[in-house]
Amino acid sequence: MLESVTLTSPLGSTVARLWKEADGVARLRSSDRETTAVDLESLIVDTLGTPVPLAALGWWIQGLEAQPREGVRGQTGSAFQHDGWDIRIEEFPLAAAMPVAKRIVARRAEVTLRLVIDEWEPRN
After folding, report:
1. Same domain membership, residue 33 and residue 93
2. Boundaries of domain holding 14
3. Are residues 15 and 3 in the same domain?
4. Are 120 and 102 in contact (CB under 8 A)?
5. What is the CATH number of the domain that holds 60?
6. Which strand ranges, in their side-by-side order, compose the sheet holding 111-116?
7. pTM score, two decimals?
8. Do 46 and 38 meet the contact criterion of CB atoms below 8 Å apart?
9. Closest by alpha carbon to 16, among 8, 25, 27?
């Protein structure tokens, strides 16, 4: 489950941080405002103007569709669609101990998400 996300600029400075409080309230903090919503999905729709399938992000980061076929593993250059999003894995390190994509681009209508995974801490 997604608990927090830090959004950074290409130079590495924090642009915004999204997280979920213990009571379920979602918060977004940027340099000039703090916003709350009943959940992360609502907060993202309010911010981006389109829903992002948060439950699928964990699969996308692994280079997989949300309901992957058995034995299918992501790789650089992989592309697939999910809920109207076109997802492309731009960098997928093959020798990594934890198979997660380093760079993902997801597009839907006028929205383009570029995900760069700098750190990954798997849950135990």
Report:
1. no
2. 1-49
3. yes
4. no
5. 2.50.20.10
6. 79-82, 85-91, 103-108, 111-116
7. 0.69
8. no
9. 8
